[in-house]
Specification:
Elements lengths: L2 E2 L5 E2 L3 H19 L4 H7 L19 H4 L8 H6 L1 H26 L5 H17 L9 H9 L4 H23 L4 H21 L7 H17 L1 H22 L4 E6 L12 H8 L9 E5 L8 H17 L11 H7 L1
Helix pairs in contact: 5-7, 10-11
Length: 335
């Protein structure tokens, strides 16, 4: 839940986190009011079962998975049945950075550096792998909630790192004291929030073909699960790419000088006319690149290369446009 002001800015962004933090003490208060013991609540199923008796992941059972494996006891039929899921997880791990990072950048109105993101994810997974850990990547849903709660700056990031390390080490013992209703409420909130953002609020941002792909993926995920949704997503992406590439093969429709595009203003002062007609600062130093179709990952590389080629040709012919405050990548983001 996020309250917004008249100008669309978030008000009281910590309402959500405070609400979830109060679920546990309120739950224990209700147990005290109803004179219900914790043992009774555990037997009924109101708490998660303890995952570790030592209170930390560092115990004598930590490396059992590497020492107690016996090939004779492995069910190879179960391994074969899990191959589609493993392939799906591998494919998702490979594409989550090109998908989640731009999606999160759009949600936060920022421009990411994909090279930095890929290097950071590569190093984090490499270090986790050599230490026997699991793969890691940016979770879009958690990141959006963190952003909407006004989480920014180095101090907030360091606080998240410290809290994550603490929960990772002592989380198994803490989880047994957290009521299940807190996790269920959080999942429900994240699901509703992402459904509103991805399905309802995005309705006007896409054409009918792209939006049909979004609905196809959502329905397939609900009915068939993640594996089927990944296949549906691939089909939707390829279909959209094929249709858009056939309709508009070149994202650039034309390149014209500002001198050829006159303003609608009829009356201008002599000083304004001198500025506009000046060869150094006037209309002739303005370059207009007209686009057509859809700009997406399939043709963004070609668009960038064409714009760089146009700038190079203009510079060679001493007809280079004035340098503004936006770089090529910034213009592509604004477009």
């Amino acid at each position: 839940m996020h309250l917004t002001s008249k100008n669309g800015e978030l008000q009281y962004p910590l309402i959500g986190p405070i609400y979830y933090c109060f679920i546990t003490p309120v739950f224990y208060a209700m147990l005290w009011i109803t004179n219900t013991s914790i043992e009774t609540a555990e037997n009924v199923g109101y708490f998660f079962p303890p995952l570790s008796a030592s209170g930390s992941i560092f115990n004598e059972d930590l490396y059992d998975i590497f020492t107690e494996i016996k090939p004779n006891y492995i069910s190879w039929n179960a391994v074969i049945k899990s191959i589609p899921t493993m392939i799906s997880l591998t494919a998702f791990s490979l594409i989550h950075v090109p998908i989640n990072i731009p999606a999160f950048a759009i949600s936060t109105n920022t421009e990411p550096d994909m090279n930095v993101e890929l290097i950071a994810h590569g190093w984090s997974n490499f270090l986790s792998g050599i230490c026997g850990g699991l793969q890691n990547y940016m979770t879009y849903s958690n990141s959006v909630i963190y952003y909407k709660s006004k989480g920014n700056g180095r101090l907030s990031s360091l606080a998240i790192v410290v809290a994550t390390i603490f929960i990772f080490i002592w989380g198994p013992s803490i989880a047994s004291y957290v009521p299940r209703c807190m996790a269920g409420t959080l999942l429900l909130h994240v699901g509703i929030d992402l459904a509103i953002e991805g399905v309802i609020e995005s309705y006007e941002d896409y054409d009918w073909l792209e939006y049909s792909g979004i609905l196809l993926i959502c329905c397939t995920m609900v009915i068939g699960g993640m594996d089927a949704a990944l296949v549906a997503g691939v089909i939707a992406a390829l279909s959209t790419f094929l249709v858009q590439s056939m309709v508009y093969q070149d994202p650039i429709r034309g390149v014209v000088s500002g001198a050829r595009l006159r303003s609608s203003a009829w009356n201008r002062s002599d000083e304004t006319q001198r500025i506009l007609l000046n060869r150094e600062t006037g209309r002739s130093r303005i370059l207009v690149i007209q686009l057509q179709g859809h700009i997406f990952f399939g043709n963004s590389v070609k668009l960038t290369d064409d714009i760089k080629r146009i700038f190079t040709e203009k510079k060679t012919s001493n007809d280079e446009p004035s340098v503004g405050k936006f770089s090529t990548s910034s213009m592509l983001h604004d477009i």
